[in-house]
Write a structure and sequence with these properties.
Elements (H helix, E strand, L loop, with lengths): L7 H5 L5 E4 L6 E7 L3 E3 L2 E10 L8 E7 L3 E13 L2 E11 L1 H4 L3
Antiparallel strand pairs: 1-2, 1-5, 2-4, 3-4, 4-7, 5-6, 6-7
Amino acid sequence: MSLDGITRDDFARRVSSSWTVEGCGPATLELVEVSPAKVSGPWEMFSVVFRGVPDEPLEQGTYALVDEELGALDLFVVPLAPDADGARYECVFTRAAPLAAAGG
């Protein structure tokens, strides 16, 4: 599925799901958080946070993350400070707000 067709709510429905990181061996991430959407002018912004195991850290970069429902998505992943449960990663989305995209 294309990122153009994915919404914040699509990610929110997938919280607690496992995502496979293609090209990184058996690496998997868990989607643990989806921020509320904020709209500023014509832009919508939100972020998603994944958690991975601490001994298999990912570097900042673009990865193909695969979810069984949403399919493969190329996401730019930024490492955050780890928490007690493992490594954490954030993906930030800034794009045309739904009403702006529809022309109104």
